[in-house]
Amino acid sequence: MSDMQNDATAQTNFGRSEQKRHTILQSAEELFLTRGFNGTSMDEVAVHAGVSKQTVYNQFGDKERLFREIVLGVTATADAFADGVTEAMRGVDTPAHLDAALRALARRYLATVMNPQVLALRRLVISEATRFPDLAAAYYERGPARVLAALADLFAGLVARDLLAAIGAARAAPDFAFLLLGQALDEGMFRVGEPVLTPAGIDDTADHAVDVFLAAHAPRPASS
Amino acid sequence: MSDMQNDATAQTNFGRSEQKRHTILQSAEELFLTRGFNGTSMDEVAVHAGVSKQTVYNQFGDKERLFREIVLGVTATADAFADGVTEAMRGVDTPAHLDAALRALARRYLATVMNPQVLALRRLVISEATRFPDLAAAYYERGPARVLAALADLFAGLVARDLLAAIGAARAAPDFAFLLLGQALDEGMFRVGEPVLTPAGIDDTADHAVDVFLAAHAPRPASS
After folding, report:
1. pLDDT at res. A89
2. Alpha carbon of A58 to those of A17, A73, A93, A146: distances in Å?
3. In this complex, do A215 and B216 lie within 8 Å of one another by their Cβ atoms?
4. pTM
5. For the domain B3-66, what is the CATH code?
């Protein structure tokens, strides 16, 4: 074979291996989310993914490593959301523009967190927090805390541009997050398989959260 | 034996049986909270409680019924807290009095929810929410939702006395609850065995939550 053919073969093999890895991860996620860590075996993951058990072990080592990879998949979701936060607020320069941008951001944030797959992953991590405390802490850091940090950066920028008040700004990110998510997320942990919010409920909750947030965090009008 | 002696014997037997029941519940709670539902056996509960396995079965039927009784123990905690909410606000009739009463209530609410035993029970219920969805929903109704309902009653009373604004009052209870609890409770689900808040952190969080709550929900001053 020519070098070019060798390269092409290597690329195809790499592509197949990546494809298998992806299929195994998807199967493992589905099984872990529905059956938990103890209720899932490497054998079942292999059967569900349509690969040999040896392939699963070759790719992931053991069940705990496979589980960690699934749980830390939250990193990609949180990073993508955090990038979107910065993007959504670029060029916001008036109170009216800020108001509209916050309402759009709130809708997206609430819908993302209340996604059934996201809720199921949270339940799974909480279920295994006693067995894997470091993994649960890592999930928190890379998921919820990562998003709160992105919001804190965003709000600090808005304070610097006099679009939010400086007083109390250190807590603006958790105020926004939990006015918005608090009740639905809490209820969502305990109601399995029932949607907690309708699309209209998402809109109402988002608008009310922004109203309360701005009542506390908008700059005070200068006294004349 | 005289009738009086019969009564005394019956009372002593009843007292012993109640005492055993209490000891079994305490042992079962400790085991379920540290080892989960699957990791706990009726044998272990009996050994831990120092009673026979037969006594455990006679009192509770089977492991699932024992588990349900532990989980629904939240009812007593929530009822006691809800009674305290009404009590704490009795006679509040000025904005300054309301401010102080809300700060005291917020400290107690946050400290109650962040109690390690309460957090562990929440984690346990979430862990078993897929297996026992009706039990998880009942826990939510009798615990968190019960407290939110007591707060909603409280705030409706304050609106009627013009101490809170009517606009947005329907969401005053979850606003108060999640401004206060949201971040700590979220983090507390993922950090096992590490206290999330110091006593000073509880005070700061409570004061900030009340500041934001009143910025949004205090009546607007009449324009002069």
Report:
1. 85
2. 11, 20, 53, 31
3. yes
4. 0.91
5. 1.10.10.60
